[in-house]
Fold:
Amino acid sequence: MRSLLNGILLLCGLLAFSQKQHQQITVYFDSDLSTLKVSEIQKLQSFFSDQNQAVLAVAIVGYCDDIGSNEDNLVLSMKRAKAIENYLNTTFDINAVTVTAKGEIALSKTEILNSEMARKMNRKTVIDIDYMDSKSIAETTLVKDPIDQYEGYKTIADPLAIGDKIILRHILFIGGRTIFEDQEEADAELETLVAYFAKNPNIQFAINGHVCCITNSFWDARDLDTGKNNLSETRAKKIFDYFVAKGIDPFRMEHKGYGRKFPRENVSEQLNKRVEIVILKI
Structure:
């Protein structure tokens, strides 16, 4: 009871002192266009690809220079805002809270002397972002009391039943990749499992990949080798392919990535980035 109370007090303290952060990004466009330039895409990727940030809210406002009619400029500024909205939604699964158009920005008296540069700076969309550092929150909220890091899991030394889970304890990956941190340890554990499944040919099982502690803007972590947000799936498939290469019938297995859908509570971040085997049939 005291441990539970301490955990609640710790969480309440974090909520009280956690600071929401703000960032403003300005994206510039070529004259009369609403197409995102490569340099501006890289600017967006630099911020929104940070998996340690939990994006809370995004507001987008489009602008134009003062060339053309007010009506046309209002339409163009909305197209620019919508281009940003569509990019964030399709690339990072982020939905903007508001998307508005302000139309043209008139030149001031001092800007008339350098009107070309001023107009260039007015062909823009401004993105206001509220976010929090998800990694520091996740690490701080871990309960400090000693616990069994593998509670609820079985090993191949236990009597197994349908639904039992085996966590691959020595399968640790380099961040953002499907490469093992320690190839020798990984091979030793995988070879043990290969021998077990070879001796028990009736067992069918699923290989499930999981990640954790990433921004809510992402369902899954980014695979740095492919550039896709499906790291839990590619890690599960790596184990599947290993078993197939060692002679395990692929029709006995299935593999799937669950992203951050099933985080483990009160364990280290490393143990949350895991691969599990679930027994489907004995």
User: Anything to note?
Assistant: Residues 1-17, 142-146 have pLDDT under 50 and may be disordered. The first strand starts at residue 21 and ends at 28.
